């Protein structure tokens, strides 16, 4: 049994906590919502109200980290404010605020949930050797946060860069249905299902794969037009319409490293 702390029990962190407990681990889970504390407790999670700001963190952060060997950081940058400059560097500052508390704790392993948005759209094929070149503010801050954690010698950090997240209750086709003049019809999809996200994190912990960088995207790359048209039909939604005049991205993100290193097979039936 391992003692694990999950900072951010949201869409992914909550079912992840449940899965880790079912495997016999003890889990501390954080939320920023008091209403969610009881939900965590009902799942067997030791729940904590933790609010991480750019210059401060909740007083119970030490208790949240106490006795844990592993910390999973799964908090989104949330940089889609009306004025992007108003949010500049806030996410990085939050990670900077958190790090001294990790250093003082029993945590020796950190898993940081990042995103393939750290890569630009210029490359046609991307693996872990590809140098990040983010084009969004969110991607830029994720890279800075990754570096801060990886460079720290007090703990070992594995970076897990997920592609577009999908699940039973979350699918981009619901947003795209009926839309017109959508860009990049020929761009390959780079998605990952919630179930695969959880299984991959479990395998990293079981196999002790630390000080690594992994891309996690299903090896399933039909074009956007083909995939979302078929998905709309499957889900009885209005088909989206794409514009061939706006097509310039051919990016395919490889998960070959994660498949080989972890001997992992994606559950493609979910897609």
Structure description:
This protein has 271 residues and is an alpha/beta fold. Helices cover 32% and strands 17% of the residues. It contains 9 helices and 11 strands. It has helices spanning 13-22, 37-42, 61-65, 90-104, 137-151, 173-176, 194-207, 224-234, 256-261, and strands spanning 3-7, 26-31, 46-49, 70-73, 109-115, 125-126, 156-162, 164-166, 191-193, 213-216, 252-253. The strands form 3 sheets. Strands 3-2-1-4-5-7-10 form a 7-stranded parallel sheet, with helices on both faces. It has a two-stranded parallel ribbon with strand order 6-11. A two-stranded parallel ribbon has the order 8-9. Strand 2 (26-31), helix 2 and strand 3 form a beta-alpha-beta unit. Helix 4 (90-104) runs parallel beside helix 5 (137-151). The longest helix has 15 residues, at 90-104. The protein starts with a strand and ends in a 10-residue tail after the last helix. Mean pLDDT is 93; it is low at 81-87.
């Amino acid at each position: 049994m391992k003692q694990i702390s999950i900072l951010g029990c949201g869409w992914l962190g909550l079912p992840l906590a449940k899965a880790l407990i079912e495997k016999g681990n003890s889990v501390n889970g954080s939320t920023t919502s008091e209403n969610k504390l009881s939900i965590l407790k009902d799942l067997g999670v030791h729940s904590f109200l933790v609010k991480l700001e750019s210059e401060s963190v909740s007083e119970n952060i030490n208790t949240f980290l106490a006795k844990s060997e592993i910390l999973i950081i799964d908090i989104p940058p949330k940089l889609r404010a009306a004025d992007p400059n108003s949010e500049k560097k806030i996410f990085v500052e939050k990670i900077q605020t958190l790090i001294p508390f990790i250093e003082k704790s029993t945590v020796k392993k950190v898993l940081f949930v990042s995103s393939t948005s750290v890569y630009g759209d210029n490359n046609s094929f991307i693996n872990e050797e590809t140098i990040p070149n983010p084009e969004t503010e969110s991607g830029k801050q994720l890279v800075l946060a990754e570096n801060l954690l990886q460079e720290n010698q007090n703990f070992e950090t594995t970076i897990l860069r997920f592609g577009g997240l999908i699940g039973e209750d979350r699918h981009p086709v619901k947003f795209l249905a009926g839309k017109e003049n959508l860009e990049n019809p020929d761009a390959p999809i780079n998605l990952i299902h919630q179930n695969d996200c959880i299984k991959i994190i479990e395998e990293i912990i079981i196999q002790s794969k630390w000080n690594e960088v992994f891309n996690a995207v299903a090896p399933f790359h039909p074009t956007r037009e083909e995939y979302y048209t078929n998905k709309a039909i499957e889900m009885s939604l209005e088909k989206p319409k794409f514009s061939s005049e706006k097509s310039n991205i051919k990016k395919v993100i490889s998960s070959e490293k994660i498949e080989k290193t972890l001997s992992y097979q994606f559950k493609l039936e979910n897609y």
